[in-house]
Amino acid sequence: MKNPRDIIIRPVVTEKSMSLLEENKYTFIVDLNANKIEIRKAVEDLFNVKVDKVRTMRVKGKTKRVRNRWGKAPDRKKAIVTLKAGDKIQLFEGV
Could you tell me which NCBIfam families the record lists for this protein (predicted)? Predict the structure, then answer.
């Protein structure tokens, strides 16, 4: 099994993801090859909470032009994790 720190790359801190905190939903950038079961296990191990639901989406990287060349940002995978009632992740509390 993969290390939980390899599965969860970083949290997403945007206006939309902060509004989801009221519904007890937390958003993370995760490994492209991670499935919902691995994401659930990694969040439970890292933050000592119980996960109710995991929703994932793949986000294609945007194409950008730098001087005379075209480049592409890497693809990524986002996971929206819903926790059981009463559980909170302290990482997001001060943001």
Answer: PRK05738.1-3, PRK05738.2-4, PRK05738.2-5, PRK05738.3-2
